[in-house]
């Protein structure tokens, strides 16, 4: 198909064999619009990738999943695309490959001139760096001869490069559809993940869960889905749409190393072969495994239908269906089950199932006698009317997928309604305990005797998603008998848009983790509006289920209150709980200690700090398993070995303090033996870390907790584990990550006996370890001698996920912005690159701006130079395989220094303190300029070939940068962004003001308003089904039209069936292909795919409706 010209509108959609592409591309200066390079086909080359490990949340106490992928190649992915003829070098003639191995020399900066300012080169009209040549004439020759004595002429050697271009059609017979990126990129992306792990409660075995290929095919993403009240529903499955899944389950002894060899894997058998598996969980005592199975629905598979619940015996690996037999109370045959299913299907739109005790499940199933969904009326019953005659103020952000009319409401109800069954997994007896309702949560008490049940009710709304619909929460006995109604919340269309806003009435209704059956919740005293000045702002209330059942008139008791917005409670026991409160405007966070069983006692402050200050982050307390299977704060019992080490540390600290006292300290220095400067690794709040004393930690009295944190410091993150004395605030570091590794402590693994005391001596935790060269692996670590000795047992042994990039160079850079704010970026250089030999490279800058309240917080280091490089399916680091430098994640802080601004505002009565976005453009461009300058200063980035890109808010950033800083970047790539802030008038990102409160800010931050100033090529990519608030596809469509209307070089790619993030194999591959061609064309080496059609490469011109990708 031919490319579009600039004469028509957006054009027409291509067939579903590919994405919708619009292109307005200026001709490259100095080249012909009909320029073509003859193809040269590469020999087949095999590149392999292998897996690695990362944490993965699961129902089991501790789980592991791989974030990398093992060797798997589709035949199409290994087919190379056509290769252009060798590119013209910076001087006359061509670089000759003479049909030698397919390596392309670096075409730019082959010769440079180094003077006092570093490497300098002139740029040609085409953007290629040229060799400085002497002008004609004797004066110029003399001048050149004089200059030769003052400069050093360097000759850079070519960097070996692949010559592949990509462009191979993914589907045969669809040359204008989805296409593959270059082979070296596809080989890393196209591979399935390694298995996940889920440990049994006794930690003696684990489930090894097999994952499918990482990228599902587009036909799976294209299945029908319903967009209802902010949800996306699969109408065939009665579940959320586009769920991921497992393809197999094996039971493996915990002593094995993952991936376990086949001989050690006991696979579950007895369920339908080829089924897709979801919702895997252990029973509390580990004697049962529950999971759901469904048909893939491919050719030759059974029809797709609601998920079926299965049970497995961990000792034998045999499986059986849980709800194949009709309920005893229903005499009808199995064939009369809802929708004609031979089993009782689950409804997992809102909830699925939960263990009530070791042998009992509560399951959300399709109601008995459920009929087909209601048909859409042939003619509309009437107009759609929204009314605000009462003049009620209700501001909302741009929510997606809202209900539109009564028909939508009926469909929403049909797919959301379920019944609750109580199922005895040993006998198979199932009893209905909850009639058909829109159940959204069923939460059993820790002891299994009661249920907290919540469901949605009418009236529904067309203005807000279902999370704000009316809801009712009740306390039931386990048999479904009503005990008490706890909340009946009305429709909430008017929650303020400001941060720290919340719903009025009880919220966060849940069970205490440390008690058998006690409910707690939070209630706002300000009506949920942070603008209301009231004290207290929130209260925490509690009620035991037994009191509610036996004393009808009993009222909840108040446990605590907060003056900031309460963020919840972490429970330990009757004597200890930690209350969290915070306030966004000031970034203040306060932790309080209180006694749940004696609420009349005053609460005491543990930490009061700025939560943006990562250097002062004290970490979080570790939790341990309780006798009910919940998780509560781990209280540590002193043991003789640890106590001896602590007393030794206290004596050493006292000696050091006495020695220091003999010197004359500065007048403002802290005094006493209980305070030392905060170490670089982080620790307690306030900038001071209290060391061990004989009266504190060394006494063995009081409350000991285990605190685990990131250990942020100017040298990088160094995660730590330390012992904390809650009463004095003293800490003793048990362990800390050390170079050249990056390590982090995970869950406690020595808590299998909930009644046994937890001691540091013999304590076991899961440890993750990685380095810049080696992927993360897990180890079971056991502590001895207060952490001075540790035993390890390897848990995983995943090979390197992309060995072809093992020798990549990674460096964390620190450099200042013009106003002194320190910035951070990670610089990646391709394997084999040497700056002195190869010179500057084309560079990709990929970023995401963030807001901060202070310059000090904005400038803190938040990464580690020793972390492994994780390459995702759309990561910019994929282009290391193509010979590019990558500046990943340069910090672009948008700051409003509250101290300075509030002081100035106080001095000028009536003047409001400025907000970060008041100077968004200036700070964004300043940060970007600092990043590019640093990369160029180091001699690794060619200033004429820097391309900028980002996703979501990063796309918004990209569009602003190509508009406001065109001198920095050769081109931009903006994926799934928002470009016109007037279309998000009630706030966006961290902006709380509305369009009418800050119209200048909204307009100035909108790159749409600067479409006439965009002078650099911009690629726009967007998922057609983006459901993220504020980034609807309309944003990219309108921005593209605005750019095109002003003659900008631009291209729009819309990906069918994709949301805010892209998932389908075809979508990911084609996005990478589009990005690669854009980079090569405007900022790279010029390895162009001849089939990459644009309006200036089409022969004879064509209408936009016949656009080709």
TrEMBL record:
Naturally occurring in which organism (per UniProt):
Volvox africanus
Query: What are the start and end residues of every segment in region (Disordered)?
Result: 373-394, 664-686
Which protein are we looking at? Peptidase S9 prolyl oligopeptidase catalytic domain-containing protein
| Domain (Peptidase S9 prolyl oligopeptidase catalytic) ranges | 930-1084
Q: Which UniProt keywords apply?
A: Hydrolase
UniProt biased composition (Pro residues): 373-383
InterPro entries in the cross-refs: 6-blade_b-propeller_TolB-like, AB_hydrolase_fold, Peptidase_S9_cat
């Amino acid at each position: 198909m031919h490319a579009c010209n600039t004469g028509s509108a957006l054009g027409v959609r291509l067939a579903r064999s590919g994405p919708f592409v619009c292109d307005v591309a200026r001709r490259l200066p100095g080249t012909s619009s009909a320029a073509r390079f003859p193809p040269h086909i590469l020999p087949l080359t095999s590149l392999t990738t292998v897996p690695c490990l990362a944490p993965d949340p699961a129902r089991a106490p501790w789980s592991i999943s791989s974030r990398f992928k093992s060797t798997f190649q589709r035949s199409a992915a290994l087919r190379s695309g056509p290769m252009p003829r060798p590119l013209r070098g910076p001087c006359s003639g061509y670089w000759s490959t003479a049909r030698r191995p397919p390596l392309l020399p670096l075409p730019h900066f082959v010769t440079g001139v180094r003077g006092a300012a570093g490497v300098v080169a002139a740029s040609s009209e085409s953007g290629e760096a040229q060799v400085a040549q002497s002008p004609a004439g004797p004066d110029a020759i003399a001048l050149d001869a004089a200059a030769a004595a003052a400069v050093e002429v360097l000759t850079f050697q070519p960097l070996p490069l692949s010559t592949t271009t990509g462009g191979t059609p993914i589907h045969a017979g669809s040359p204008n559809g989805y296409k593959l990126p270059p082979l070296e990129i596809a080989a890393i992306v196209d591979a399935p993940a390694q298995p996940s792990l889920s440990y049994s409660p006794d930690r003696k075995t684990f489930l090894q869960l097999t994952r499918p290929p990482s990228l599902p095919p587009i036909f799976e993403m294209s299945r029908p889905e319903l967009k209802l009240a902010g949800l996306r529903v699969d109408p065939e499955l009665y579940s959320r749409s586009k769920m991921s899944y497992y393809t197999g389950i094996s039971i493996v002894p915990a002593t094995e190393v993952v991936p376990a060899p086949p001989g050690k894997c006991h696979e579950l058998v007895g369920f339908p072969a080829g089924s897709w598996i979801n919702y895997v969980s252990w029973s509390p005592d580990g004697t049962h495994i529950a999971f759901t199975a469904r048909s893939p629905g491919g050719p030759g598979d059974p029809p797709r239908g609601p998920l079926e619940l299965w049970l497995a015996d961990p000792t034998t690996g045999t499986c059986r269906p849980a709800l194949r037999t009709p309920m005893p109370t229903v005499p009808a045959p199995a064939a009369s089950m809802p929708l004609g299913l031979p089993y009782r299907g689950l409804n997992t739109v809102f909830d699925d199932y939960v263990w009530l005790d070791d042998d009992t499940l509560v399951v959300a199933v399709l109601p008995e006698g459920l009929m087909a969904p209601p048909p859409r009326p042939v003619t509309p019953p009437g107009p759609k009317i929204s009314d605000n005659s009462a003049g009620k103020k209700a501001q909302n952000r741009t929510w997606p997928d809202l209900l539109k009319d009564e028909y939508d409401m009926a469909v929403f109800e049909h797919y959301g309604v379920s019944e609750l069954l109580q199922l005895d997994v040993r006998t198979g007896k199932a009893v209905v305990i909850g009639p058909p309702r829109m159940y959204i949560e069923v939460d059993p008490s820790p002891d299994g005797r009661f249920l907290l049940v919540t469901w949605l009710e009418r009236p529904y709304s067309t203005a807000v998603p279902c999370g704000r619909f009316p809801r009712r929460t009740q306390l039931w006995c386990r048999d479904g008998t009503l005990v008490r109604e706890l909340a009946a919340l009305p429709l909430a269309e008017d929650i303020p848009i400001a941060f720290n806003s919340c719903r009025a009435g009880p919220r966060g209704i849940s069970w205490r983790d440390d008690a058998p059956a006690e409910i707690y919740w939070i209630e706002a005293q300000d009506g949920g509006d942070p603008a209301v000045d009231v004290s207290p702002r929130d209260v925490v209330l509690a009620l035991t289920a037994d009191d509610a059942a036996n004393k009808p008139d009993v009222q909840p008791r108040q446990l605590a209150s907060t003056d900031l917005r309460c963020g919840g409670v972490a429970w330990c026991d009757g004597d200890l709980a930690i209350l969290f409160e915070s306030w966004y405007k000031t970034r203040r966070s306060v932790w309080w200690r209180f006694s749940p069983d004696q609420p009349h006692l005053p609460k005491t402050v543990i930490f009061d700090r700025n939560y943006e200050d990562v250097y002062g982050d004290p970490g979080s307390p570790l939790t341990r398993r309780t006798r009910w299977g919940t998780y509560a704060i781990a209280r540590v019992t002193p043991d003789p070995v640890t106590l001896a080490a602590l007393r030794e540390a206290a004596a050493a600290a006292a000696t050091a303090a006495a020695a220091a006292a003999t010197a004359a300290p500065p007048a403002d220095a802290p005094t006493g033996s209980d305070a030392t400067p905060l170490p670089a690794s982080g620790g307690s709040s306030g900038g001071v870390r209290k060391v061990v004393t004989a009266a504190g930690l060394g006494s063995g009295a009081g409350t000991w907790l285990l605190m685990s944190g990131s250990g942020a410091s100017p040298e990088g993150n160094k995660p730590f584990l330390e012992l904390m004395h809650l009463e004095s605030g003293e800490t003793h570091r048990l362990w800390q990550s050390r170079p050249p590794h990056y390590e982090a402590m995970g869950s406690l693994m020595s808590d299998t006996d909930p009644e046994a005391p937890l001691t540091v001596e013999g304590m076991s935790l899961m440890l993750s370890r990685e380095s810049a060269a080696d992927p993360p692996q897990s180890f079971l670590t056991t502590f001895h001698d207060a952490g001075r000795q540790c035993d390890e047992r390897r848990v995983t042994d995943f090979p390197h996920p992309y060995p072809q990039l093992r020798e990549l160079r990674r460096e964390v850079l620190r450099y200042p912005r013009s106003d002194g704010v320190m910035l951070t970026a990670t610089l990646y250089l391709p394997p084999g690159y040497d700056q002195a030999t190869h010179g500057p490279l084309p560079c990709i800058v990929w970023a995401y701006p963030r807001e901060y309240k202070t310059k000090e917080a904005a400038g803190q280091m938040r990464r580690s130079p020793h972390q492994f490089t994780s390459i995702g399916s759309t990561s910019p680091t994929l282009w290391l395989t193509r010979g590019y430098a990558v500046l990943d994640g340069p910090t672009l802080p948008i700051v409003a220094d509250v101290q300075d601004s509030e002081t100035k505002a106080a001095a000028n009565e009536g003047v409001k303190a400025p907000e970060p976005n008041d100077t968004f453009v200036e700070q964004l461009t300043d940060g970007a300029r600092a990043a590019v300058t640093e990369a160029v200063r180091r001699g690794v980035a060619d200033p004429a070939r820097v391309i900028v890109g980002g996703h979501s808010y990063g796309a918004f950033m990209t569009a602003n940068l190509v508009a406001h800083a065109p001198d920095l970047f050769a081109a931009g790539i903006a994926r799934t962004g928002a470009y016109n802030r007037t279309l998000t008038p009630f706030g966006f990102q961290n902006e709380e003001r509305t369009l009418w409160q800050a119209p200048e800010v909204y307009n100035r931050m909108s790159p749409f308003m600067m479409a006439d100033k965009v002078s650099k090529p911009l690629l726009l990519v967007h998922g057609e089904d983006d459901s993220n608030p504020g980034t609807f596809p309309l944003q990219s469509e309108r921005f593209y039209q605005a750019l095109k209307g002003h003659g900008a070089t631009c291209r729009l790619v819309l990906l069918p069936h994709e949301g805010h993030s892209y998932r389908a194999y075809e979508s990911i591959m084609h996005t990478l292909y589009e990005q690669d061609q854009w980079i090569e064309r405007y900022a790279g080496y010029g390895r162009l795919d001849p089939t990459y059609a644009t309006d200036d490469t089409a022969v004879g011109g064509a209408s936009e409706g016949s656009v080709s990708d």
